[in-house]
Amino acid sequence: MLRRRSLLKLLRGRRSIQVFKRARMPDDVARLIVEAGVRAPSYLHLQEYSIVIVADENLRGEIAKLCEGRDELIMNAAAIFLICADLNRPARMLSLLGHPNVLRSNKHPVESVFAVFDAGLVTAFMIMAAEIIGYGSTILYHPMLYPSEFAKLFQLPPGVTPLILLCVGERGESPPLRPRLPLDLVFFRNSYREAGEEDLKRYIRELGDAMRREDYVRKYIGLNMDYLEYLKSATTFNDELKKTYDAIEKFLKENLMRF
Ligand SMILES: Cc1cc2nc3c(=O)[nH]c(=O)nc-3n(C[C@H](O)[C@H](O)[C@H](O)COP(=O)(O)O)c2cc1C
Question: What mean pLDDT, rounded, does the chain reach?
Answer without folding.
Answer: 97
